[in-house]
Each structure stands twice: as structure tokens, then as C-alpha cells.
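Components:
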Amino acid sequence: DGDVNAGAQKAATCLACHGAEGKSAVPLYPNLAGQHAPYLLHSLQAYKKGERSGGQAEVMKAFVAGLSDQDMEDLSAYYSSLKP
Amino acid sequence: DGDVNAGAQKAATCLACHGAEGKSAVPLYPNLAGQHAPYLLHSLQAYKKGERSGGQAEVMKAFVAGLSDQDMEDLSAYYSSLKP
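Structure:
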């Protein structure tokens, strides 16, 4: 399972686009705070598997390329734990 | 631009999976309530353009096939207006 505190440590790369508290300042980028962890994990895995294209998908693919399964679980747990 | 009330009328198909108030009971399905409208619209368009696969993408593709651009804007405005 994901570890919230570990996820917080790993989120440094995410916050430029998704906001310091998981609420993005750019409305084309999704808020992540309070989203279901299983959906967040699914989305990260989808980028990694090349199941998403268009929009910022290439950016996300580049970021997730360096993430392990545990990293993705930790990040999902962390963002899910934040107040929406 | 999207019309919140029109979106509410058009959301009958969405709520089975995404919840009556945009909060899904199934954690693999995303909450939509309070998400940025431009991101919601992007996602709907991505399904329509075939830019997403895997998971429930085929289900979403089938639903969005019947939606006009205005429908997608209305739905995005509606779900964005709901309390997260």
C-alpha cells in the first residue's frame, strides 16, 4: 500500500503543475487533492503504459518513467489524503 | 461556455459511476465534483478523440460518442460547480 509521508517527499516534482496542496493553479491541469487513491494510481499507470496521449500526456509520461510501482502508490496515497 | 443547469440535466448517465453529487462510490472511478471545468472538458474530448485506452476508457468512449461539444461543456461546468 501507499505511504502518505513517503508520497509527500516524492511529490516535489508534481507540485509545479498540480499545486502545493494538490490544487492546481492552471485549470487545464487536474486537482489531485482528495481524489481516490486507486484512481490516481490507475492514471499514473495509464501514462506509464502509454494509454494516454494528447494534452500534457507526454509531460506526464516523462515524469512517470522514473517512478517505481511503490513511488506511484505513495504519491497516490499522499494526494488522496489531502483536503479537496 | 458551459451551462451548469443544462449540465445537471445531461448528467443522468454519468451518476451511476461518478455519484449523484460527483463523488464516486467506486474508488477506481474519479470524483468529478469541484474538478476544474477545463480539465473535465479536456478529458471528455480525449476520450472522444481516442486518446485514452485501458481501464474504463472503452465505457467512456461509448458514452461520449453521443455527446456534442456543448454537452461536454455543460457537463464540465456542472461537475466543476459541485462541492468537492
